[in-house]
Specification:
5 helices
Length: 128
């Protein structure tokens, strides 16, 4: 339970990084309201939050001493799976909410449990 709470705190910080990058990219990239543009912006923002999350989860949540590159690749793989889940949920949500922050939020929330359990039991499985 303690790790899940820490994971949630780290996730919240990554969510803020994700939201800030998403919002800034929406402001600077010309708005064509297309799904491709949204998917690119969403992906860049998601992965930006993911880099922050990897570092904080590695040193604080799971206190891992494993091979950083191997864990980084595994974490990136888990993030890619969560990204696909988020994009699928976003595609469904966009039908009702458009390509804005509500859709972003629903897509981002969709990957939380997948992210935690895959990282806990695969990426950082050796960490206590």
């Amino acid at each position: 339970m303690r790790q899940f709470v820490k994971f949630g705190i780290v996730g919240t910080s990554g969510l803020l990084v994700n939201l800030i990058v998403f919002t800034l990219l929406q402001l600077v990239v010309p708005n064509h309201s297309g799904a491709l543009q949204y998917n690119i912006i969403y992906s860049i923002a998601f992965l930006s939050g993911g880099v922050s999350n990897y570092y904080l989860n590695r040193v604080w949540t799971f206190r891992s001493t494993g091979h950083a590159v191997k864990e980084g690749v595994q974490f990136l793989t888990v993030s890619a799976i969560a990204l696909v889940v988020g994009l699928l949920v976003s595609a469904l949500a966009a039908r009702y909410f458009g390509h804005g922050h509500k859709t972003w939020f629903l897509g981002t929330v969709a990957g939380i449990f997948v992210n935690f359990f895959l990282n806990k039991y695969w990426t950082f499985k050796h960490a206590v």
